[in-house]
Task: structure prediction
Amino acid sequence: MIELAGMYPDELKEWLMSRGEKPFRAGQIFSWLGRGRTFDEMTNLDLGLRRRLKEECVDAAVEIRTVRESALDGTRKFLFGLRDGNCVEGVLMRYRYGRTLCISTQVGCRMGCRFCASTLEGRVRDMTAAEMLGEVTRVNRLLESDGESVHNIVLMGSGEPLDNYDNTVRFLRLAGNEKGVNIGMRHISLSTCGLADKMLRFALEGLPVTLSVSLHAPNDEIRKKLMPVAHAYPIRRILDACRVYIEKTGRRVIFEYALVDGVNSRPEHAAMLADLLRGMQCHVNVIPLNDVPERDLKGVTEKQVAEFLDVLNEKHISATRRREMGDDIEGACGQLRKKYLDGGVQ
Result:
């Protein structure tokens, strides 16, 4: 079955013309799909075309299988079902500046970061651009009754976006199309564990999204203990790629830094991190680790968080503690999917 939502308007026009349909239908279908509508709801198409679309194509690449809402802050966690039976997660967070949706880009992940539950089952497959877009349009439809919609997107769910490069770039271009979902690039953040070669390539795409780099260590020795990708990409190479990205896009880079007790969380680690980042247009998100029992990794105390931030601020590195949301609904990446795979979620 063909996923029309993953086509650019010109591709959709070509596909329709190859089947004897009028090219102007492409704009109509593209707009409907951007609003998450089914073929049956495309009322300005004739019945014959709608019937043909239903026979050959997919109008909904994902479905919402489970929704959990936090009693603490209203965060909603979604388990999205894919057509092949796989599932991925998404998280909708409410901020004063609008609703932000965290989406997945792969089923599972092969990067092997020790603090992340998404990688425990490995990478099953890449997601298509239509599936990524479907995460957004399905949530938008859910929000419609409240007169709301997704304002910001973060590619920080399961998977490494730059490991699924072509589908990720296609998704971004589709999401930014004003006749579709229409979310500007400055309202989208992409998280990477530091695939430096792909970061350099991405810097030339003309897509000025916010780049968030999962650093999590002030040197390669510590980083290798937490992130296997560090064996292929040393920190200096990642930082060089970040500087190119800043130069090409004019956007500052966000560094994610999860504090792991006894590994990377001491004040001297903060001082080393400050030395690395000095002079760079960047911000550090300090993240108290969610315990990962499967990896025997522990989080830190509030005092440790405060001491780490104090050092960075004293050394004039822009840094804040990342707000924790959805703690009571398996808010961390990969937790709900793993529970589902283990049979704990129906």
